[in-house]
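Got a spare moment? Tell me how you read both lines of this record:
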Amino acid sequence: MKSYEIRSPDGVDALALVERSQPEPRAGQVLVRMRASSINYRDLSTIEDPVSRKLPYPTVPNSDGAGEVVAIGPGVTRFDVGDRVAGTFFQRWIAGGITADAMASALGGAIDGVMSEYVVFDEGGLVAIPDHLSFEEGATLPCAALTAWHALIVKGGIKAGDTVLLLGTGGVSIFALQFGVMHGVRAIVTSSSDAKLARAREMGAWETINYRDTPDWQDAVRAMTAGRGVDQVIEVGGPGTLERSIQSVRVGGRISLIGILTGVAGQVNPTPIMRNSITVDGIYVGSRDMFEDMNEAISANSLKPVIDTAFPFTEARAAYHRMRAGGHFGKIVVSIGDQP
């Protein structure tokens, strides 16, 4: 079988496409023929800087993938051959809160990822994907969709009439827009592209802000909400945007800290967080139970993930370069092999 491997710190163009032996499932394990994998910024960061993450060489990249079950080991009860499944980002986070052990089971980091034609999973590390989704669409769910669901629904408890601020139009923010619209939430979306903002409005965004035209976008958010501020911010920028997000949220509101697209260095004044009783949550994907709840909602509402571009397996490096360029809207996907 063919797999991609991180073998050096030399970045995307150094990814090696290699032949590996096809694995066999042991007791409690499931062999999945992977059909698609989606790319997250975390996957790109892992490829570009494996040293700081202490990755062993070789490591197969990517956390998110979907395919069909082709073999099961003894004792497997959750799946049968032919089932359409996706792997969970954390293979050992089944329910409850995150633990150190669960964090040590992240695909494409702590353990080999899914950029392979075949992958063996423990049966507990898989969920069924909604019937109405393609493999490419199903492959977008494990990280970006579940992160947005965890932030807005599980931790945020959003309800109809709430106002949320979504930074950018990448995978997490677009899923947050879709889940927000599903729940009757008023979403404000930011981007530097008027074309992307127009698409966001077509998808149900309540208001939009071009942050290049309006660099003090926190003031625009306040104006849109009659000075009150939003109930919740989906914060994917990090140090470069967090101060403005703090100024955008209402007294007693919530900031879901998800990404570091602007880098990791910077200082934040904690005083307004304290004075305004703002809750700041670090959100790192979610559990299998959350994933299955989310999939029920996706099925019930016939939600379709937004895919920016799908690349063939042999052109996976180009998919990572598109992620680095930052011009995508929604998710970037790699198709793996012929679709049945």
In short: The first strand starts at residue 2 and ends at 5. The domain at 145-282 is CATH 3.40.50.720 (Rossmann fold). The chain has a mean pLDDT of 95.
